[in-house]
Amino acid sequence: MMASNDKSSERIHLLSDERIPKLLLHYAVPAVVGTMVNALYSVVDRIFIGQGVSEFAITGLALTFPILLFVQAFGMLIGVGASSRVSILLGEGKHDKAENILSNALLLTIVTQVLTLVPVMIWLEEILRALGANDRTLPFAYDYLKIMIPGNIFSTLCFSFNAIMRASGYPYKAMITMLIGAGLNTVLDALFIYGFGWGIEGAAWATVIAMAVSAAFVMQHFLDKKSEVQFHKRNMRFSMEQIMAILSIGMAPFFLQLLSSGIAFLINSTLAEYAGSPLMADRAVGAYGIINSIALVGFMFMLGIAQGMQPIVGYNYGARAMRRVRQTFNICAVVNLSIGLFVTVAALSAPRFLASMFTSSPEMIEASADALRCCIYGFAFVGFQVTATQFFQSIGFGGKAMLLSLSRQTLFLIPALFGFPLLWGSKGVWVALPFSDICAGVLGIILMAYQFRLFDRRAEQEGL
């Protein structure tokens, strides 16, 4: 117990006294590895499927996005909410409440997974048909999801509790558990698709098995008596206070994920409507899947940087060290803006090369390259929007985080998706994406400027 207390004191000392650049590097590196590994689970699957199965397998996979985003939303709800609360409570010295949050997060995970699994599996084919699947693409989408949906419990346990592990002071251990799963997923993808010839089902099995292994490592951490926060039998009961604490912060990414599901459906259906023919529609949807994969890598890198600031901002906000809070945000915002600019330049410089990583079809490559040139211009603004959203989540301002998240997915994007195609056809879909990104980024700048003014006034009143 003494050793555990010494380690806890050391982590608290780092969060309160260590230089911010060094501290941010300490937390951001494993967070970036974690989010990039998350991206690689999807991207590696798509590369192997696009190259090793067929041209329209990538389209079938793109049709699964709305469903996967929907079931994964509950993991975002629990993981972000619980990790933010744990970080803040540890900063306030409320260790017992932090452990109560941990146990309630596990109970919520089990309940939400059961409630989503049953209806989705019962009506899976009907849902896919409604999402635009046809006889050419339905077999790919159905075969992938019939394995992925039941296995989503492992994904939720892995990513949600990995975030809690990182927020409670174990960033490098969290990174290692994610790397184990990512490496295993890549090996199994190659073995199952090329070695065993299992096709798209092989990619699904590879992901589920890798997630299960990672989840086992993550859950073992919270059973270890040396861990900062642990599972205890006494906490294995629902506490409405703790559940509401989790949900209040987790609602922003939850609704964002649900909206992402709806947006994916809207984009697919709009592309199909304006593409001109069923064959062109399938290629347009496939191009969206490829662009989504390319953007996902950059987005998850920026998200990792923003998540790296979570324990620093959460702890120092709880300790009222506002200068450290501001400095942490400023560094993250500059870094993510730079990443966004780099991705933009890379996508504009080599769009065909990037698309060819996911398919060997010349038609699909050309469609993807043309679309990528249109939709990448607002990506730098995404970096600031992600940083601001994560900042508000880290300090418990779920409402502002939700407003900023929803603005990008509803206030700006949905009207553009309905209006721009009327002017420019299917190209209007690709133009709508950067339009929304830029507008949401500007809104994020306004909200952060206002929030820092409030911090300054509070500091003056408290004499800090």
Automatic annotation (TrEMBL):
Q: Which residues cross the membrane?
A: 24-44, 56-80, 101-124, 144-164, 176-197, 203-223, 243-267, 287-306, 327-350, 370-389, 401-424, 430-450
A single GO cellular-component term from the record reads: plasma membrane
| Keyword entries, A-Z | Antibiotic resistance, Cell membrane, Membrane, Transmembrane, Transmembrane helix, Transport
Q: How does it sit in the membrane?
A: Multi-pass membrane protein
Coiled-coil spans are: none
Q: List, in alphabetical order, the GO biological process terms annotated in this UniProt record.
A: response to antibiotic
Kindly give the InterPro entries that the UniProt entry links to this protein: MATE_fam, MATE_MepA-like, MATE_MepA_subfamily, MdtK-like
A GO MF label: antiporter activity
**Where in the cell does this protein reside?**
Cell membrane
Major localisation: membrane
Q: Which family does it belong to?
A: Belongs to the multi antimicrobial extrusion (MATE) (TC 2.A.66.1) family. MepA subfamily.
Q: Which PANTHER family match?
A: MULTIDRUG EXPORT PROTEIN MEPA, SPORULATION PROTEIN YKVU
Output this protein's name.
Multidrug export protein MepA
Q: Which organism is it from?
A: Porphyromonas catoniae ATCC 51270
